[in-house]
Specification:
The chain is α+β, with helices and mostly antiparallel strands. Helix content is 22%, strand content 31%. The protein has two helices and five strands, in the order E-E-E-E-E-H-H. It has helices at residues 53-62, 75-82, and strands at residues 3-5, 8-10, 17-18, 24-32, 35-43. The strands form two sheets. The chain has a three-stranded antiparallel sheet with strand order 3-4-5, covered by helices on one side. Strands 1-2 form a two-stranded antiparallel ribbon. The longest helix is centred in the C-terminal third of the chain and has 10 residues, at 53-62. The protein is globular and about 40 Å long.
Length: 83
């Protein structure tokens, strides 16, 4: 079953996909409880260098990925999950 939202087709909820619309790198149709929201995140013009431990540690600390758990309906949650 495919879901179409804002001109994009999603194969289900909470599954990130590559997206260049809106100047963002990824998009996900996030669902938490009864709430559904289209989230776009990531800079389309930057490369992800999560294979470099110092960059990964800095990113996760800067976005408080491990200390303050964000909601699934935020771009921060999905960015932290990717990193």
């Amino acid at each position: 079953m495919a879901i179409t939202r804002a001109g994009e087709t999603f194969s289900g909820y909470n599954k990130p996909k590559n997206s260049r619309k809106g100047g963002k790198k990824f998009a996900v149709l996030a669902k938490q409880g009864d709430t559904v929201k289209l989230i776009r995140f990531g800079d389309a013009n930057m490369k992800i260098k999560k294979d470099q431990p110092k960059r990964r540690k800095s990113f996760r600390a800067r976005h408080k990925c491990d200390t303050d758990k964000p909601s699934k309906l935020t771009a921060r949650y999905w960015s932290c999950k990717k990193w």
